[in-house]
Task: inverse folding
């Protein structure tokens, strides 16, 4: 599943703008939108097969975080050794979107695959990003039980937020997908 040439630039612009408006807890409070980064990487995987695209968004994510920390003095605890683990976490989401793209068809099976791939991508991203931060940055008494409690605390919110963005994107996709209009017309 790749976008047409006329949709590529607008899609990248929209996703980039969304990232700049919502990235982390830094700027999101200004527009009251939760962070869309995880959904963006999944969407990028679905529409773009080139690793250059997620690389550009990884650079943007770092630039946003860097600017917010150095210019606004917010969230300076995010730049630790664990920060590098965002690379595999976000690429896992991109890979989940890529996998879905390769198995996409306009049917109910694909809808099920959408939920499975997004769920597994989000859970994997949470385990990598939170796990690396916890095991590297929490001094002293780390434990698997405490880490599991943190996952139970933060994963539901990550699932809700990311799925909200992904379901919104799915609706737009279905509206713009020529084959979905044909399927709807044929069902009448």
Result:
């Amino acid at each position: 599943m790749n976008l047409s040439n006329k949709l590529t630039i607008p899609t990248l612009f929209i996703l980039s703008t969304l990232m700049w408006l919502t990235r982390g807890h830094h700027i999101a409070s200004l527009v009251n939108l939760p962070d869309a980064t995880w959904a963006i990487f999944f969407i990028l995987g679905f529409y773009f097969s080139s690793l250059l695209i997620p690389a550009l968004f990884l650079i943007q994510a770092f630039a946003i975080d860097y600017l917010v920390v150095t210019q606004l003095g917010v969230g300076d605890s995010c730049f630790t050794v664990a920060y590098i683990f965002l690379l595999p976490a976000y690429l896992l989401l991109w890979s989940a979107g890529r996998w879905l793209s390769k198995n996409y068809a306009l049917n109910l099976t694909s809808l099920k695959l959408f939920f499975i791939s997004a769920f597994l991508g989000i859970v994997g991203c949470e385990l990598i990003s939170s796990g690396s931060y916890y095991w590297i940055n929490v001094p002293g008494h780390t434990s698997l039980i405490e880490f599991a409690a943190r996952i139970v605390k933060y994963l539901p919110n990550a699932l809700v937020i990311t799925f909200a963005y992904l379901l919104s994107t799915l609706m737009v996709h279905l509206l713009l997908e020529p084959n979905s209009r044909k399927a709807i017309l044929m069902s009448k």
About this structure: Confidence is low (pLDDT under 50) at residues 184-188. Residues 10 and 161 are 23 Å apart (CA to CA).
